[in-house]
Each structure stands twice: as C-alpha cells, then as structure tokens.
Specification:
This protein is of the alpha+beta class and 149 residues long. The protein has one domain: Aspartate Aminotransferase, domain 1 (Alpha-Beta Complex). Helix content is 40%, strand content 21%. It is built from 5 helices and 8 strands; from the N terminus they run ααββββββαββαα. Strands 1-2-5-6-8-7 form a 6-stranded antiparallel beta sheet. Strands 3-4 form a two-stranded antiparallel ribbon. Strand 1 and strand 2 form a beta hairpin.
Length: 149
C-alpha cells in the first residue's frame, strides 16, 4: 500500500496564495512559517493540499514504511487541520489550554488562529515533532543537519 501523502514539487506559497478566504490565507502563512521554524526545513507540499516541513522515515512492525513530514497542516474549507503525529505526554493538558478545537486521532481541527493560544499550538507542534524524532531516532541526524543549513 502506498501513502497518498508524499512530497511533491508544487509550491506551498502558490497554494496558499490561491486560498480565497483572507483569514484562512493569513492563518496558513503563519502555520507554514511555524512549521519551518520548528523543523529548520523549508515547507513543501505533501499531496495536493497538505503543507509540511522536515521529514522522517518510518517503518511499522507490519513492514509498511514511508516518509512523512515532521510538522504539517492543511487549510481545509471547514477548518485548519494541524497534524500531531508524535507522542505528546501532556497533550490533554495542553489541549485544555488551547481554546476552541476538535481533536481526532492525530488531527487537530481549528476554525481560525485568532480563537486559540498560538503559544500552546506551537508547543503542541514542537512536542509532536520531537516525539516523531524520538520514535524514529535514525532521523535525528538528518533533521539536525537540515536545521543547521
């Protein structure tokens, strides 16, 4: 089985510029910059509608493996979706401080950034990134090299 979430050559800036809702476009720019700041890597498109920065290689016990972004989001019509994939020990406590949101298994849904505490969001994203690198330690060296460039 192949993941649909693969890095593409499409431009994240062009994707964001095409968002017609001004607030959602501004929120997407902030999230893009946050992802880049947290990973030290430029933003890339992952599939047709996800923007992510950095990457790591995963391999499950089932044998399935692939690459995924370290920090990413998608500015969907109904809500901004921030992907939190890493193990975040104090996730429930942080979500309690975040502001209005919905949480799926690894998807955090936010209507607009003005409604939430951006410092808490950034902390969740940072801990998710650290969790992914802790779970897949072979990626730490390449992530550290990317953040130095």
């Amino acid at each position: 089985m192949t993941s649909k979430t693969t890095e593409t050559d499409a431009s994240p800036d062009e994707f964001i510029a095409a968002i017609t809702n001004r607030q959602k476009r501004e929120d997407a720019m902030w999230l893009k910059e946050c992802c880049q700041r947290l990973t030290g890597a430029p933003a890339k498109m992952w599939g047709p509608s996800i923007i992510g920065s950095g990457s790591y290689h995963y391999k499950y016990e089932s044998g399935r493996e692939g690459d995924m972004f370290l920090a990413g989001f998608s500015p969907r019509k109904a809500a901004l979706v921030v992907y939190l994939g890493g193990n975040i020990p104090d996730q429930a406590e942080l979500l309690g401080k975040l502001g209005p949101h919905k949480m799926g298994k690894s998807c955090l849904y936010i209507k607009k950034l003005d409604d939430i505490d951006l410092d808490v969001l950034e902390e969740l994203m940072q801990k998710s990134t650290a969790g992914a690198l802790a779970k897949y330690p072979a990626n730490r060296d390449s992530a550290a090299r990317r953040s130095q460039n």
